[in-house]
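In the previous chapter we treated chains in isolation. Here, by contrast, the input contains two separate entities that must be folded as one system, with a combined length of 616 residues.
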Amino acid sequence: MIHPKIIRRQQVILFALVGLILVTVLIGMGMGNASVSYNRLLPILFGQGTFKEEFVLFSIRLPRIAITFLAGMALAVSGAILQAVTRNDLAEPGMIGINSGAGVAIAIFFLFFPLDAGSFIYLLPVIAFFGSLLTACLIYLFSYKKGVGLQPVQLILTGVGFTMALSGVMVVLISSAERRKVDFIVKWLSGNIWGNDWSFVLAILPWLVITIFFTLYKSNRLNLLGLSEPVAIGVGLSVQRERFILLLTAVASAAAAVSVTGGIAFIGLLAPHLAKALIGPRAQLFLPIAILTGGWLLLIADTIGRNLVDPEGIPAGIMAALIGAPYFIYLLIKKV
Amino acid sequence: MVRLYTDSLHVGYGERSIVKDLTIEIPDQKITTIIGSNGCGKSTLLKAMTRIIPHQSGGIVLDGKMIAKEDTKILAKKMAILPQTPESTAGLTVGELVSYGRYPYHKGFGRLTQSDLDVIHWALDVTGTTAFKYQPLDALSGGQRQRVWIAMALAQETEMIFLDEPTTYLDMAHQLEVLELLQQLNREQGRTIVMVLHDLNQAARFADYIIALKDGQIVKTGSSEEVICHEVLKDVFQIDAEISRDPRTNKPICITYNLLKGDPNEKNHDFRSSLVCAHA
């Protein structure tokens, strides 16, 4: 029941996105503190590079590119699910406490539990992951009403409330901490992609593969959740159960992303939105586009961010916000 | 045998009880209309019967099974619902929306099979919406949109179709169009139609069976001649109605009415049993 033209358009858009992503990756590979000249890229990739060139490309740049791309995709999946479940186009992973929950968890551990530097970096994603998971679960529990089940509006309100409260906790935690530690936390909060070696890529890859395929599999149910509840029930969707399962998927995918990148906003809002504007609201059509767009946007944000200011660059989360905020305002204006 | 009935059904929101101890049977392959004043529980009854809202006690039985315990997807193959104000996603096209009606038959990724497509085309065709197939729903007029929602319900291929005020917001011609479509589906394909209607004359004209509700309880059930009469309307709506016959359909018709003065709560409920109505 879809116009053949639309399906062709989806293919063209996907093809274009893959092209854009490849170009961005290529540009990203060459840019950075230690620049690798573009005519050396191919030889290095085929094992003809010097030790230094290979180290920069394979151990620093490529894992970071991979992590960024994967995290962007995960956030897009999460945002797409949340927008469907809450039937609100302005929903995004931050709304269900992903960023704030992970942030508070990291701050608490960083400030109060002496961890040795070696294991800390690998423990951090675990802490962040469970921090956001716990927050999301609390938000779910508090917005769940007996008899009525989970109502989207309630979820949004509780989510906003929790996020605010956690920001407050964050201020309290930070205000009494040492300067050096605060620096780390603040950088984490602003989405400084810090999980940048291959082990992090391997850690989030399985989550991502599972959540992406699961979400694509649930496309039809996402479509139905976008309609009003009586209609969805009428065609035989177990609304409460699907809401729960999909929310869990959204949380798992965004938490995995945030655990290695730090707090990143707007990608989860922007990517599904752009995709829907391009191809329409049918999940089967827009999800693949949204996923690639999410990865690409975060990749651009990080590529620009890390090259803009020496030596440490601007965190990808801030760059994403710089790109995202104007679009968000545009959305609000358009809605009114 | 009656396929769908309720047995001392209680439905309420929180503490407030809306439908009280209601036992009704929905006649098969007939058009049943539920009438009553605002807040009498007619919409609530419809929603409970279609499992959109839960009920507190009593039972709703379809084909010998309690619907509360039945798998929702199996129910979706037996009953379709058109809610009062269905909402669609912005930008969704008519064809896509109607194809969602095939959900109960989907397996796995839910790709549409040829038989799915045949049903969808038939549903679009019979509701006269084929021309809008690729247009977004938001671009259509109220009447067209309502027909698309009916098409989606039809795509579910159910023997029962429930509609909550399907004629609201439509002009007179479109109201009739929707009701005639439903009548056609009932007459030609034997589908059971259950709907809530506000307009008494439309209810009288199209219904084979009318359920008149007041305060969540039955005042009177029966044919339009039995229900649309002076005494019943007095009890249900607190109106003093002038009933005549429609010269074209020979169905009862309410020509004019006045409000009854006085506190309606003072009315004696036993009054119901003494109702005398004209028979056809």
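The first strand of chain A starts at residue 144 and ends at 145. Chain A has a mean pLDDT of 86. Compare these points with the single-chain example from earlier in the chapter.
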